[in-house]
Amino acid sequence: EKIPPPEVEEGDNASLICPSEDGEASRRLPWKPKARQTDIELYLRTCRKKFLGYQLEGDCTTMVGLPESIQEGVKILQQHLYVSHGDLAMKHEEKMCNTPKRNRTILYHHPPAESLYRAMLPKMEDYIIALLKVLLASASTPLSKAKTSGSLNVLADVLPEDPNPVEPQRLQKDLNRHKEIITKAVSASLLLLLKHFRLNHVYQFEFISQCMFYANCIPLVLKFLNQDMNMFVTAENSIPSLDFPTCLFFIPPPFRHAIIDTHDTMPDEATPKAMCWRNLFSTINMLRIIQKLTKWRPPRTMMLNVFKSPPILKKTLKISHWMVHLYVLKLFKLQAKYLGKNWRKANMKILSSIYQHVRHRLLDDWAYGSDLDTRQWEAPMEEQKLKATLQMYHAMWYRHLLPDTSQLPDLPVHIDDEATTDDVQKFIDSCDVELPKDFESNYQGWLETEVYGKQHDWDALLERYNYKFDVDLPS
Q: What is the longest distance spanned by two Cα atoms in the chain?
């Protein structure tokens, strides 16, 4: 007989109970952990160095000499291996770099996003900076009140030419409402650009992410969040007669103070205020943008700590919405190991929430990472390496779209049926071959013995590598 599942009391552990395949409740986390290929390679590299004292670069299958427990651990990691869409795209680009030009094929999965990327690429940085300037001018924070050089007046078209002094309150509410709409639209546009370019090709996503990072998007969003978020998400700047779709079918009556001042009496403090859906949506978009910019990028994650984001994100947790909490916890998980032991000891409640509600990797070290693992000296090197990879990607597929190609690298030269004499010379110069020191003194003897003194079937050799020439080669 089946043993009935134990009764579970309502409480904090109730969220950890989820139905199993046969429909019964089971005590397990509601997600399946993942493992990346780089995690398996790092795990094997560490174990081989510890137990055997040697390395096998690029080999994730040889287990000779490793303890049985280590072999079982590697098998579990391989069972939970997750190869993302971006990893496949990066492997494709590496393959195309070592392929002759006539055999190269461009990879994209979303034709509308590809068309948009080609149109925006020549002035991508300018477009991103323009969107962030609009976001800076429209965000309802003290930062937007400061008069900085180059600031925009996004409400110039909203202000009436002859404002009626009888309607100051209605005008102020309408201005705040327009600022909220602009903030919502710009934040959603940036998020959609990140998502669709990630769907199309991972290098397009990395390029727009780098543009946003260099345009100070992270400090801008953190300053936006550094306000009373409860007051922001419960702001009442809506005029019912002007909201959609009421404004299309309803003629607003003449303005009276009673229409706006409906809360002259003090409201009951026990009654929670209704949330403004526009501001809540903007807040979630801001958190998701930061999370996408910093995920798997330790240098950018360390910048969150530089800009003192933990207290700002901790205040954001006061918003009573599950999606806000989820993305705030994801950001805390990214930077937890850079915050030190004292911070982790003082915020155990946040760490417990991360464990309960955020997906984990099998080799995650976010909860116990020490300060020695931050590797701050590698941060500039990683960004420069990413920039070089993106330049190679643009030089291969979008060189004709860029106005300035002087900074783009030269593509690797491959000998094929369309290769010229200069291409062959470049290919020979690019070959990094280490020769023995005594090879130069014995060069003539090597030519007589290995080249002139032996018969070679050059046609068979070229067919092996798919090389075809129209000229006859000497036998």
A: 106
